[in-house]
Amino acid sequence: MSGNTIGNNGGRLYSFGSQPVLIDCNFVVDPANGTGMGIRNLKGQGVQNVYMHSTAPASSNPNPTPGYAWIQLASNYNRYLGGFSGFVSPVVGSPLAINAASAALSVHSPYIITSVGAGPSGVVTISPVADIAGSLAGKYFSLFDSYGNTFVIWFNVSGVGVAPQLGSPAPVGQRGLQYVQQSIAANSSAATIGAALVLTIENLPSGISGTFAFTASGTSTVTVTSTAALPVAGIPMDGSTVIPEHGPAVPIIFTIAPGSASANSIWTDGSGHLYTVTTSVVAGTTLVTSGVGAPIGSVLSFVSGPGSTVALSFTNAVTGYATGFGFAVITSDTNLQDWQSVGLPKGLNPSVGQSFIAKATGAGSSSGLVMAPGVSDIVSMEVIGDPNASFAPMPQGGSPFVGSWIMVQMLGLPASGQVPVATAPATGSVVGLSFYVDAKFSPSNVGF
């Protein structure tokens, strides 16, 4: 038999009652609640009122002594057939944060969610490099936000540099691909470039009126934080490092041993690839060119043009679109990921009142809170008197009295002894009650 079977009779319920009705409700025990009824959050449309002991009762309320509940059903019924009840434990202690920094949870212990909280804002860092004689001109990197935007930030160095062509930009005011010019002076230091990036990045639009995509700070290392409590869409990505084999020509930077090459001179790696020098180099380790095809070997040979003809040794070559900046993701967790990491079963969205068993002391940076389960102090509950005698009140004084009444007492164990006594449930306990009643006269009311 499968675990979700509904029984041999297919889930049907047979009763000798003529019109059996199941009424259920639940509520939170709260003696100090301002309604003066000793409870709050009554749920169950078949129940009109529940009265428990109140520390601030209304003069019209019965206000039973601690340990008793007086339940008024919303309609008249003919007979009480039975009932059952249950308790949900309250919470105790202080709220505990679920984040990894607090590490406040105990593995294998049960907890109850008291605040769903929010996930952290995504954080990435950007570590610029200095410009060397215009080496950043035309280079770019991509920055992704939490709103669906991709910002392509490209460098104009002392008036030199053009935007890359990666696709059609989004219309103004809409989300999508956006090109952003970053102007700097030639030979700017890494810290100067970082400070300029901060001003640019913190003014990038999110696509929501009045909301920017990021906050930013720093110089040599720029910390970029999403303004949404969500991770950014990915780690920032440096400009393309792909050198096309067949046009168009792209900027290619060679790392060379000291040597000399003049602007507009043409060099080859011996495999048919030609590279035209765009920045004169007299001595140093950087040769800026424009060309096609990934260099092969380790030597550039002179082909034509002005300047020195002495061969140049190189150890590396990359497309000039790459900035060479460093990028890192610092924070990328979501609220749901953090709750699942500390034990909330997958498939559930965190909500107040959920319980789970902790499988970690903390995770991520969520602001969610939990508390430990307490004890209701109640071991059983029983109906007082014959509820049938309190069903269907008679009209009186010219007005009908509608609503059957049921009284119950909640029993707990005293500090000493094993005889249960009427006990007030711990504040915050959730009480569930179900009553099985007959709404119509039937033979079962008088026997056979």
Explained architecture:
The protein is mainly beta. The chain folds into four domains: 20-90 and 376-445, no CATH class; 91-119 and 333-373, no CATH class; 123-239, no CATH class; 250-319, no CATH class. Helix content is 4%, strand content 35%. It contains two helices and 27 strands. The strands form six sheets. Strands 15-18-17-16-19-20 form a six-stranded antiparallel beta barrel. Strand 25 (405-412) and strand 26 (421-422) form a beta hairpin. It is rod-shaped. 31% of the residues are buried. Residues 444-448 have low confidence and may be disordered.
Helix content: under 10%
Strand order of the largest sheet: 15-18-17-16-19-20
Quick one: how many beta strands? 27
Mean pLDDT: 90
Whole-number count of domains: 4
The largest sheet, given as strand count, sense and whether it forms a barrel, is: 6 strands, antiparallel, barrel
The shape, in one word, is rod-shaped
Question: What's the topology here?
Answer:
Layout: E1 20-29, E2 39-43, E3 47-51, E4 68-73, E5 79-88, E6 91-97, E7 110-115, E8 123-127, E9 140-144, E10 150-157, E11 177-184, H1 190-201, E12 214-218, E13 222-226, E14 237-238, E15 250-256, E16 266-268, E17 274-277, E18 286-291, E19 299-304, E20 312-319, E21 326-331, H2 335-342, E22 355-357, E23 369-373, E24 380-383, E25 405-412, E26 421-422, E27 430-438
Parallel strand pairs: 10-11
Antiparallel strand pairs: 1-2, 1-27, 3-4, 4-25, 5-27, 6-23, 7-22, 7-23, 8-13, 8-21, 9-10, 9-14, 12-13, 15-18, 15-20, 16-17, 16-19, 17-18, 19-20, 24-25, 25-26
